[in-house]
Design a protein that fits this description.
The complex is a heterodimer of chains A (about 300) and B (about 575).
Chain A (H helix, E strand, L loop, with lengths): L12 E10 L2 E11 L4 E6 L5 H9 L6 E6 L8 H5 L2 E4 L11 H9 L7 H10 L13 H13 L5 E5 L7 H16 L4 E6 L2 H7 L2 E6 L2 E7 H7 E8 L12 E7 L2 E7 L11 E8 L2 H10 L10
Chain B lengths: L1 H36 L2 H7 L2 H21 L25 H27 L22 H17 L5 H24 L4 H27 L2 H8 L8 H10 L8 H12 L5 H19 L2 H4 L1 H30 L18 H4 L5 H33 L8 H42 L6 H27 L6 H25 L5 H25 L7 H11 L3 H4 L1 H9 L2
Helix pairs in contact in B: 1-3, 1-4, 3-4, 3-5, 4-5, 4-7, 5-6, 5-7, 10-15, 11-13, 13-15, 13-16, 15-16, 15-22, 16-19, 16-22, 18-20
Classes of the chains: A alpha/beta (about 300), B mainly alpha (about 575).
């Protein structure tokens, strides 16, 4: 998992001030994002947070109402062929042609990509235990996900976009998907953008994480930076405070009686202190805790950035 | 419990088919109002389609309601499963309680439509004699609604019955159609009486109910599926089919993306519209049998009438095929849940393929038009054979003789080919137009709104002019100028559309030129046919040419890349 150190290199995906509304609902609000080459970028958020909408914009399947999207320096809406030939995509609704046989679908998709690697496709098919004569309609959900992944990987795309790839799948398929991501990363210069609810998976493979909530990016940083930056601090009060404690820099207060905990961004040693409380314990947050703290403390998330 | 079953079935059928039923009710209401304003005789003379509609609707509307109510996700006639809506299988009711409401509603809907049509038209819809028959000689074919209802309930049974092979269902459907047509034939030649037809047809309803109950019960508990699986013990149930499919369809080597997409279109739509032509083919087969049996000697009028009906049906089938193929080719799915809003939305798998929108449209257009060309060629050949063998074309008739004497046999036959070519080209252009409309998905995007407004304005304008001419026996003042202005406007918008699509890079200039060329050739063929065969009338030529410009289809097809672009990129 390597993050390209050359900051001058053009990002693979660059999104600036992207906004999108569906009727009165605001799906994306002033989203800006940059994904450098060679990075595994995890996009996490609740259902309806705007992950799929954001990914569809990156794929050129949605037109930006405001702002701009560029992939490999090109507008994916006006240059679909140039962009899509370099992108591998596994959609949330993996809508494969159901009447085709597995080998027919592979053969059909192969015709669209000059860089298609037959040997690699064959290896993946065997690894994924996909029977070539089986009709797509007869495949299980997991097998379909594997087939979708095979089709997205076999031409060795420069950018792999996976929209909720492991949602509703069993651990074995999830393992295959994670392995595929890791293998893709191992190939120099490849970039992965994937969205997921499953934060432990994101934590395992992502270099960089963006948390999206209510159509806004509320956190976007390197995973290690994020984890080292946020802490959970446990306080013990001399006497039970009459209401939820308040202290600048702390959020997501939880607890009761004399014991309360809160999240803090930054160096705990330099944080302010409560007069009648002592810090009993502080520890870095896992991505799961961080997500719950950030999203849980914001409700719909339409507020200030942390 | 049975009342609850009736209630839930009514809600289900209504929710799936309300637009068809409402449209049909609106059409009946419009005909009723028209009959009140003008006399039924007048309407029948000037718009015989209204009577034809009321004759066909009691068959097609319940059939569409049946198709709309079946288990659409697996609704392929070639499939093994029964198509009874699965939703009902989880309800705490017995199989007969599931089946009874569906059959009752089918019978009631058919009966109500015949009754409504009969009352509105003064029972003209049951008079099947050709126009011009003396009124006293016309008989009311009261047996027809019973026979058609029998056919519909048997269709229901066959659709719901799970089978071990899809061909069994298709053969059974063909057998049911043949049996009903044979009954019509027997009734027409007097071998059976109308009363016998009524009795036998009525008896079919309880018989079909019993068969349907058994089929639904077996399908509900998976009995038939187990039998099908039993033949492949220890193997995947789909494996034998898969192996056979692999043998039947060896992998193709594609020259490129366009070739692959063309193969996809051909495979995914291979059965589209075949059902529409089935009836014509059946009539053709019956006609062949009559020819072989030399039935013309004994019943010349019957065979001639049958031949005319077959030719007519072939031509109407082509129009229906243009509509069906154009409609379905816009879809990327093999199972057309066409009554759902998202039926024509481009699936993400295709939207993410590195192929331009223009390429997708081009492949769809060429595929559908090639298919229609095959259908049209075959139908015209069949019509030609029927017309020649049944003596429907009199080569020694005065107009043909004059043509042959004036130009010689060869040039005369070339001239006769012009209207045929014009018909084929208009049919192909209309197919492309229908496909373009469906590509736009059921959404209020700009191309759809413009097309809808354009067609609506044209339809209202045509009705207004027809009404005026019916009353005053002369065109309204200024109509010629309006038609010419509209034609110029159409040509301008055509040029602007081509420029817009080309400049946005949605389709190459070469392909746009080809589409424009097709439009010009169609227009030329229409003009050529008019010049060769239409007598000089009171309409001045510029106005006539303007009319042809307006009637030549193709503008909607040129907007197809825009429609698909809005479908692909939301």
């Amino acid at each position: 998992m390597s993050v390209e150190s050359n900051g001058a290199a053009r990002p693979v995906v660059e999104i600036r001030n992207l906004s999108r509304r569906f009727g009165t609902a605001e799906a994306l609000a002033d989203v800006s994002l940059s994904i450098p080459r060679g990075v595994v970028f995890g996009l996490v958020g609740t259902n309806g947070a705007g992950k799929t909408t954001l990914i569809k914009h990156a794929m050129g399947l949605m037109r930006a109402q405001a702002g701009s999207v560029s992939v490999f320096g090109l507008d994916p809406v006006s240059n679909p062929t140039a962009v899509l030939s370099r992108v591998g995509y596994l959609a949330e609704l993996n809508e494969l042609p159901e009447w085709m046989r597995v080998e027919e679908l592979i053969n059909f998709t192969r015709a669209f990509y000059p860089s298609w690697d037959d040997r690699y496709a064959q290896t993946l098919r065997q690894n994924f235990e996909l029977e070539p004569h089986k009709i797509v309609q007869a495949l299980s959900k997991g097998q379909r996900a594997r087939l979708g992944l095979l089709l997205a990987l076999s031409y060795r795309p420069e950018l792999l976009i996976l929209d909720e790839p492991s949602s509703g799948l069993d651990p074995l398929v999830r393992r295959d998907i994670l392995r595929a991501i890791i293998k893709t990363i191992a190939q120099e210069g490849r970039t992965v953008l994937f969205s997921s609810h499953l934060l432990d998976e994101v934590e395992r493979v992502a270099d960089r994480v963006a948390i999206i909530n209510g159509g806004r990016i509320i956190q976007n940083d390197d995973l290690e930076t994020l984890k080292s930056c946020y802490h959970r601090v446990v306080f013990r009060f001399g006497s039970a405070p009459p209401a939820t404690p308040q202290l600048e820099g702390y959020f997501n207060w939880q607890g009761g009686d004399r014991h309360w905990s809160a999240c803090y961004r930054g160096d705990v040693q330099q944080a302010g202190h409560l007069a009648n409380a002592e810090i009993v314990e502080h520890s870095p947050l896992s991505l799961n805790e961080l997500f719950l703290a950030l999203v849980g403390s914001r409700g719909t998330g339409k507020g200030e950035h942390a | 419990m049975i009342a609850a079953a009736f209630d839930s079935t009514a809600r289900f059928v209504w929710s799936r088919n309300r637009w068809i039923l409402l449209a049909c009710a609106a059409a009946y209401a419009a005909i009723f109002i028209a009959y009140q304003i003008w006399s039924p005789e007048q309407i029948h003379r000037s718009l015989p389609q209204t009577t034809a509609f009321m004759r066909l609707a009691p068959f097609f509307v319940p059939l569409l309601a049946l198709v709309g109510s079946v288990n659409v996700a697996t609704a392929q006639l070639g499939g093994r499963e029964g198509f009874f809506p699965r939703l009902f299988y989880t309800l705490p009711i017995k199989a007969h309680e599931m089946v009874l409401p569906f059959i009752t509603y089918c019978v009631a809907l058919t009966g109500a439509m015949w009754l409504a049509g009969g009352i509105i038209s003064g029972w003209r819809i049951l008079m099947l004699a050709p126009p011009g028959t003396p009124h006293e000689a016309e008989t009311i074919s009261y047996w027809l609604p019973f026979l058609i209802t029998s056919g519909l309930v048997w269709f229901q049974v066959l659709a719901w019955t799970p089978v071990s092979s899809g061909w069994i269902r298709i053969c059974a459907l063909i057998a049911a159609i043949v049996a009903h047509f044979f009954t019509v034939f027997l009734c027409a030649v007097g071998s059976v009486t109308p009363n016998q037809v009524v009795v036998v047809s009525t008896l079919q309803i309880p018989l079909a109910f019993l068969m349907a109950t058994r089929a639904v019960s077996r399908d509900r508990w998976g009995v038939s599926h187990d039998n099908a699986r039993g033949r492949a013990v220890g193997r995947d149930p789909s494996a034998p089919d898969d192996a056979r499919a692999a043998k039947r369809h060896p992998l193709r080597e594609f020259s490129g993306a366009l070739g692959a997409q063309a193969w996809f279109e051909g495979r995914v739509q291979r059965w589209s519209g075949v059902g529409v032509s089935a009836l014509s083919l059946l009539l053709l087969a019956i006609l062949l049998v009559l020819q072989v049996l030399d039935a013309r000697v004994k019943h010349p009028d019957l065979v001639d009438g049958f031949a005319r009906m077959t030719v007519g049906l072939f031509l109407w089938s082509l129009v229906a095929l243009a509509a069906v193929n154009g409609f379905l080719y816009a879809s990327f799915r093999s199972v057309k849940r066409w009554q759902y809003k998202g039926a024509f939305a481009m699936p993400s798998f295709f939207a993410a393929l590195p192929m331009s929108t223009g390429d997708f449209v081009w492949v769809k257009l060429t595929s559908v038009m090639t298919r229609m060309l095959w259908f049209t060629g075959a139908a015209l050949l069949a019509c030609g054979w029927i017309a020649l063998s049944a003596g429907l074309i009199d080569f020694d008739s005065r107009p043909l003789l004059a043509l042959r004497q004036q130009h010689g046999d060869f040039v005369a036959s070339l001239l006769l080919a012009i209207p045929v070519c014009a018909f084929v080209l208009v049919l192909l252009g209309s197919t492309a137009n229908v496909m373009s409309l469906s590509l736009g998905v059921r959404a209020w995007n700009a191309p759809n709104a413009i097309h809808f407004a354009r067609y609506l304005a044209f339809a209202f304008g045509a009705v207004a002019v027809a009404t005026y001419m019916n009353r005053h026996h002369a065109p309204p003042a200024g109509l010629a100028e309006v038609v010419r202005a509209l034609a110029i406007f159409k040509l301008l918008t055509l040029a602007l559309l081509v420029r817009h699509v080309g400049r946005r890079g949605l389709m190459s200039w070469g392909r746009l030129a080809a589409m424009l060329g097709f439009w010009l050739v169609t227009f030329g063929a229409l003009l050529g046919a008019a010049l060769a065969f239409l007598p000089e009338g009171p309409t001045p030529w510029p106005t006539f040419v303007a009319c042809l410009v307006l009637l030549t289809p193709g503008q909607t097809a040129i907007a197809a890349p825009l429609s698909l672009h809005l479908n692909r990129v939301r």
